[in-house]
Amino acid sequence: MHPEQRPNEEQTKLWNGIAGRAWVDTQPLLDRVLKPFEDLLVNAVAAKSARRVLDVGCGAGTTTLAIAELLGTNGRCIGIDISEPMIALARTRAERAASTAPPAHFICADAQIYAFEPAAFDMVVSRFGVMFFDDPVRAFANLRHTAKDGAELRFLAWRSPAENPFMTTAERAAAPLLANIPARDPDAPGQFAFADRRRLNRILEESGWNEIDIRPLDVSCNFPEKDLVRYFTQLGPLGRVLQEVDEQTRTRVVAEVRAAFATYVQGDEVRFNAAGWMVGAR
Ligand SMILES: C[S@@+](CC[C@H](N)C(=O)[O-])C[C@H]1O[C@@H](n2cnc3c(N)ncnc32)[C@H](O)[C@@H]1O
After folding, report:
1. Å from CA of 127 to ligand 1 middle
2. How far apart are CA 84 and CA 91, in angstroms?
3. Is the pTM of this model over 0.85?
4. CB atoms within 10 A of CB 211
5. Is the Cβ–Cβ distance between 269 and 224 less than 8 Å?
6. CA 225 / ligand 1 centre spacing (Å)
7. How far is the CA of 74 from the centre of ligand 1 (A)?
8. In ligand 1, which atom is closest to the CA atom of 30?
C-alpha cells in the first residue's frame, strides 16, 4: 500500500460504488444463492450460545438479522460494513423487521481500523465479508481486540477459483470478446484472497488467534434460471466491465456467456457446487 493511501481505499471505492450497487440490486437473489451458508453460520452461533455477536462485512445485513432473531431479547448482533449503500439497505430491513424481531444494529465503517469497544463480543462471524482487507493481519488483530477472552471467531471464505469453476465461468467465456476483464490476483484483497489455506492460517496466527481450524466445505447452491443473465451481467468482474461496453458488444457477450453456463442449468434452475472454508478460531 502507498503510504499516503487510506487503508482499503480501492475496496472502499468498489463497495461504495459499482459492487455495492450490484449487491443492493441483487440482494434477494444473492441471499437465495448463499442461504446454505447463512444457515451454517446461524447454527454455529446457536451451538455456541453466544450473547453478543459481531458480523463483519455484513453487507445488506441478512446474517446479522438472522442472528439477531436467533439471539432474541437475550442478546445483540451488530453488523459492520464499509459500504454505505449496503448498510442503508440493512438498516431499512432492520426497521421493517423491528416490529416482529429484536433489532439488529449496524455500523458503517472499515472493520480493519474501527475503534471497537475492547472485549465486547463473545462471537465474531462473517459470511464472505473478511477477504477484502489490504492489511489482513491488522484487521484480524483489531477483531481480536474486540473479542472477549475465549470468544470464537467463525467465518466463511471461498476456496480457489479452480475449485469454484461456476464463479469464474462468466469471465472465462467473455475473455475472448472483452480485453479488459481484470485478472484475479490470489494475493490481493478480493473474493479469493483466502483460497490458500496456509496463507489464511498464517494471517490468523500473526493476528493473535488460537485454535485455528480451517475446514473445506462443499455446498450445493441453486437459484432460478430466469435470474442467470442478471447474475452474470451485474456481479463480479464481468458485471463491472459490462457497464462500459456498447449495446452490440453486450448482446454478443451475454449470448456467449449464457451458453457457457448451459452445463449448470437443470430445468428452470441453476445448480452448482460452491467450495468454501469454514474457519474457526479462538
Ligand atoms: C461478498 S460481500 C458479503 C456481504 C454479506 N456478508 C453477505 O453474505 O451477504 C463482502 C462485504 O464485505 C464488505 N467489506 C469489504 N471490505 C470491508 C472492510 N474493510 N470493513 C468492513 N466491511 C468490508 C463489503 O462492503 C461487502 O458488503
Report:
1. 8
2. 10
3. yes
4. 11
5. yes
6. 26
7. 26
8. 9
